[in-house]
Amino acid sequence: NNLTMGNIVDGKFVSDQGNTFNVVEQTCPGRLDTMKRAIILCDVLYQEEGGDYAVRLNNMLKVLTKSPVNSSEATDESLLVDDALILSEFWISGGYMNMMITIPVKQNSKQPHMINLILDDSAQEAGTYSFSLRHNAVGEVLKTDGDNKDMYLANAYVSFPITDIITEDSAKINLSLKSYKVLSGYIISSETFTDTIEINYTKGAFEQAPVSKSSTSSDFSLN
């Protein structure tokens, strides 16, 4: 039983750890070869000649991939809208900054939200990189009067490639974002605050595990 993230290369899944999986059985709907990056849940059946692994695919989740944007080049104001979200998990693997985010969305709405990672390139110090995570909710935000019955919480995975930005073997990463406040009992308040995360990045450190920022998002309720 294996849960892992990676890229689809020539129809095969290549994990962030560098293992190649060939899907020989599948118990879930969907096509993995239509995705660029994904999280998969699979059973490893056996190792093939050449080192690849034959797997039974039990579930798959699409991962959005977007390149970070330099702050000096972010001329489109829609990229800089700073609506709140919940950063449920955050980790680095495979040369990507990976996140699971939780956002309020309006019932039956088909309006896409925008997620962007902005690199502050105005006053960058050697070995230190400052990013801000931006969310454009296109008006779908929690109301301060508490009347949020028409809203529900949705999860999404997003990966930002950073190997072209961070060239050192090790560096310090600062990530800032506007977050909804999570109250006791996993209730999300309409109150927001600015959160800052600091991590030490090591190139090729696939063993870095997700950093949990809050409880399981499926347990959240709106306030």
**Strand order within the widest beta sheet:** 6-9-10-12-13-15
Question: How far apart lie the N and C ends?
Answer: 37 Å
Q: SSE string, helix = H, strand = E?
A: EEEEEEEEEEEEEEE
User: What's the overall geometry?
Assistant: globular
What's the helical proportion of residues? under 10%
Q: Please outline the major beta sheet.
A: 6 strands, mixed
Strand content: over 45%
| Number of DSSP helical runs | 0
Q: What is the averaged pLDDT score?
A: 88
Radius of gyration: 19 Å
SS-based class: mainly beta
| Total beta strand runs | 15
Unreliable residue stretches:
214-221
Characterise the protein shown here.
The strands form two sheets. This protein has a six-stranded mixed beta sheet, with no helix packed on it. It has a five-stranded mixed β-barrel with strand order 1-2-3-5-4. The chain has strands spanning 2-9, 12-15, 20-26, 37-47, 53-65, 69-70, 86-93, 96-106, 114-119, 128-136, 151-161, 170-183, 187-202, 211-212, 221-222. The chain starts with a strand and ends with a strand. The protein is built from no helices and 15 strands. By secondary structure, it is mainly β.
Question: Which terms summarize this structure?
Answer:
223 residues, mainly beta, six-stranded mixed β-sheet, five-stranded mixed β-barrel, 15 strands, disordered C terminus
Please outline what is shown here.
With 223 residues, this protein is mostly beta strands.
List the helices and strands and how they pair.
Blueprint: E1 2-9, E2 12-15, E3 20-26, E4 37-47, E5 53-65, E6 69-70, E7 86-93, E8 96-106, E9 114-119, E10 128-136, E11 151-161, E12 170-183, E13 187-202, E14 211-212, E15 221-222
Parallel strand pairs: 3-5, 5-11, 6-9, 10-12, 13-15
Antiparallel strand pairs: 1-2, 1-4, 2-3, 4-5, 7-8, 7-14, 8-11, 9-10, 12-13
